[in-house]
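Worked example 4.2. Below are the chains of a multi-component assembly; read each line carefully before continuing.
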Amino acid sequence: MVQEAQQHTGTATMATANRPILSVRDVHKTYRLGRVKVPVLHGVDIDIYPGEWVTVLGASGSGKSTLLHLMGGLDRPDRKPDQERRASITFNGEDLTRQSKRALDHYRADDVGFVFQFYHLLPELSVLQNVTIGGMIKHGRFGYSTHRGKVVGRARSLLERFGLGHRLGHRPAELSGGERQRVAIARALINEPSLLLADEPTGNLDRKTGESILEAMIEHRAQTGLTMVMVTHDERIAARADRIIRLLDGRVVEGTDAQRG
Amino acid sequence: MYQALLTRKYLTRKVMPLLAMAAVMLSVATILITWSVMGGFLKTLIESGRTLVGDVAIVWPNVGFAHYDDLIERLEADEMIEAATPTIETFGLIELPDGRIELISIKGIAPTSYNQVTGFADTLWWKPIEEPTPKDHEGEDLRLQPENRDLLAQIEQNALTMTRPDPLSGVIEPAAVIGVEVTGLNERTIWGGYYPQITNRARPDGSVELIESFIPRDGAVGLTILSLDSSGRPVNPVTRTMPIANEFQSGIYEVDEGTIMVPLNVLQRMLKLDAARRVEAVPADENPFAVDIDPQTGEARPRMRQVIGEDPARVTTVLVAGAEGFGLEEVRARIRDIYADFAAAHEGEVPSSSQMHYQIKTWEDLNRTMISAVKKETGLVLFIFGIVSFTTVFLVLAIFWSMATEKTKDIGVLRALGASTPGVAWLWIGYGAAIGLVGSIIGTALGYWVVSNINLIHDWMGETFGLVIWDPRQYYFIEIPSDVDPSKALTVFVVGVLTCVLGALIPALHSARMDPVKALRFE
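Applying the procedure described above to all two chains together yields the following structure tokens:
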């Protein structure tokens, strides 16, 4: 399957020849726990190339999820006056750290899809509504009425593809863990993002189900050329990606081409 | 768009919003019921207050003004005036059948024209009726009984002519119509009617006389007033026994327990406001006790003074009813114009138009004290209920805060999907507005239903639980008055929605400003 994907997208090696879709430069991040400052990232530099599947590997607390949130414009890096270089996270040439809140909202709605470990589906909504809500947010109050047909069609198509065509009206509570994660992936893909950020998407699933989820994502990537950044601490999953970035205590300790490494 | 979807889902799948909705509903219904009942009370009171005064009154108290017949003719010739009637208003003492002496307001009226202006006939209590009053479920009202019909019909007719045959001689005498609460001899029933009761009268020798007190049949009262000279100064007390023709109920207790109406000409005579010959004054150098010989009898008599004119009869008030379709102020302005012409025609004999300018009063002016008192009471009650209902804001705030906390992770998800800060704020504000809207709609409907059926509900409560809040023996109106004004309902409705939006505002801002990363990690 991976080989198929590589053939279809032109492989990671070819991807790295392009300009990066996302560049992270000298990013530091510190959280506060009450009065205590907890440094999480210490000057991270990463490039992600179009069509590439990168896994970020590291132990708990190594800053994987924080890095993912920063890449997705959910959070901003520290601004340190003593820093030699200014931290930047550049997506298609636009520095996200200089963007307004509104621009970041648009970035998340248009260009990025998030998949979380615990699915984070909205329990009151049906499967179909959980997926289309991304389209509602993107198109806004008035735009959605004109794009409604297209959004619902795409949501149905995605859910069919993920084997949930018969579950459209069901609520998340009526689904298994694997089915919920498939819905979450469909939600992340509804607006045809160019970057999918997945935070341990199989971490809450048994091995077999996790495998099927992964297969679904790989298959979709093979069909669309989607760029994926996946956070995991599972070496087996990481090994299937184009490239592995290892984080240790908030620093990139290794960046390898997984397929070749 | 997603706000509308989530609002709909949250509304139908959560218990908490139903509690908030119930709070808004009850608050809206309570305010609307209170306002409508107080408004109805005020409206009924105002309408009752209008009953005996017409639309506009031309008032020149104490000494009164002359040529009122001419004024009334001029008024009634105008298209804006329906009718006008002369009256006299004064105070005096009344001696009641049981011997008590009370202060009383005395009105001299011309019954036919007074009825045209004020609907006086409708206020007469003792007359045959066809339908029982709303709370007289058993048909106990004496006025319904067939055996009383003839007597009551005669009594009603007596009131309209303000006369009554003397029970012994049969001679027709001028008679008065008295407020139904004046004598205290009518017992107010639980269904809001009256039963004449037998009472005692203390005698000087210590014995007691029993009085059967259906006074419109054969009762009388004593009236004592101070007659006035032409300058309005009291001259001497005049006492007269007045047979009672009937009793009236205007709807205002203060009027009904302190007013008697007597024929206009009777009161004019008692007050010396009737027409009188004017004679020459005795010259200063002439003996005031000089005598002449009467040419017809040849006997000595006090020297006759030459009649040099006649002082016309006077009244203190002319009441006016405006024609249909004309506003009160419009009618008053026209009356002022007509009075100006009238004053010019009788210059020196009647108050000038400038003097009379502020004495031409609408019925609202005349009842201003009473109306403003009830308005203030209404305002006070609404203020208190408003404060109580304002707690709904905090209730909604607490419920929304709890819900927003519960939904923290959902907010994080929405932010990750690209929802903006204002978008999330609008989610909660819209949600608050939706709860307020539904709660207010149901509350307004509930309030309207309760107000529309308030007397039925009250009767049911009385029959089922023995709970009687509005007892006609204590309250003057038989039924609980109510008046649902659409503008009031709209105001209460809008305030209900705003209350909810206000309560949702702080949780909305808190939720919108939440760090999405923290929200996603919220446990």
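Take a moment to check your reading of the output against the notes. Chain B has a mean pLDDT of 86. The radius of gyration of chain B is 34 Å.
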